From TrEMBL:
UniProt protein name: DUF998 domain-containing protein
Keyword hit for Nucleotide-binding: no
Organism of derivation: Nocardia rhizosphaerihabitans
Source superkingdom: Bacteria
Keywords for this protein: Membrane, Transmembrane, Transmembrane helix
Record field: transmembrane: 12-34, 69-85, 92-111, 136-158, 165-186, 198-220
Coiled-coil intervals, chain numbering: none
Record bears the keyword Flavoprotein: no
Classification via InterPro entries: DUF998
Amino acid sequence: MVDVPASTRIPRGYPLLIAVAIAVAGLCYSSWVLEFVLPIDTDPVNSFLSELDAEGKPYREVFATADKLVGLLLIPAAIGGLLVFRRRRLTTVGWVALACFGASTIADAMLPLRDCDPAVSACGGGLFPQLHQPHALTSTLAVTSIAVAAFAFSAAAYRYHRWWILREFGVVVLVVGSAATIWMLVADNLSGSYALGIAQRIQVGSMSLWLLALAAAVLVEAREWTS
């Protein structure tokens, strides 16, 4: 069978649409910065971002809508990535994980954090608090999915010698996000306050930056393959 050149397999407009969708999703996922603009009484050092769109919060719809847009943009973008770009094992894992991340953010918005008294055992705690707070489960799935996507695309960038933006800038962002995640996991099991709110904001901010890096990589990769 004759291998059809990549330039004939990738219509020029499709990668642009995929890149724009991913970039806009990255910007929407950084909607938490509005907490510094809107009249919201939050403590960024110690509060979690899930509290911004918790049940009963005044600007819940703003943040929930942004999360839904993330999912509605990333799911078709990931499917488009699978159909448009050459399929390889690591990039396939990356696109599928990206779609899972999009679905998880939609679920995150539809299952907001509930007001809960920590003294009540049914509210959470124990080994599996996710069983008591569905929002904790969807948030865990979202973070896990984008972590898998980031690691898969980074590994693909090195193994296949492509996606150079992810080899350089993307890996730096991935390291910063991973450090913030470790900060949260360790500090959450220690007594005292360790600025978990700052750690989560660094973590989520790195996710948005990585999505922007992926969008740029899609554009560059498409330009190389269609030139």
